[in-house]
Design goal:
4-stranded mixed sheet, 4 strands, about 60% helix, binds zinc ion, alpha+beta, about 130 residues
Length: about 130
């Protein structure tokens, strides 16, 4: 019951992850459930993470609700602990997660920090996973 409400609260963010992840399944990618999270890698997801993120050099993995996108299986494996922190953040913030993440990055950038590494969501994930 409670888990269902959490999945529902996170669904708007998860839906974005599904929209980005599903094209991978018809372009050579794969998916699997790992501890209640749908992990998708390869195919279109590889292209998306390599080319379409704001990070220089692209991202290795990205969490959107209960979907984690990874360039490949190795990226998903080594980033799992970090990305699970983001899953918990998505569960806490629900549909507000992406706007909150974006606003946090913007505030950090305006203050002269690194919008990725100094973002409090990332700092929590790195602190909890290293
Ligand atoms: Zn992160």
């Amino acid at each position: 019951m409670w888990r269902g409400i959490i999945y529902l609260w996170s669904l708007p963010t998860t839906a974005i992850g599904l929209c980005l992840g599903m094209p991978a399944l018809v372009s050579g990618g794969r998916m699997r459930w790992v501890d209640g999270v749908l992990e998708i890698h390869g195919g279109f997801v590889m292209h998306f993470l390599s080319e379409w993120t704001l990070l220089e050099g692209g991202a290795s993995a990205m969490t959107l609700g209960h979907v984690v996108l990874g360039r490949d299986r190795d990226c998903l494996n080594w980033s799992r602990e970090h990305e699970r922190v983001h899953v918990r953040q998505c569960e806490r913030w629900g549909p507000l997660f992406l706007p909150a993440y974006g606003i946090a990055s913007l505030v950090v950038k305006l203050r002269g920090g690194n919008p990725y590494l100094d973002n409090p969501f990332e700092r929590e994930a790195y602190a909890s996973s290293t």
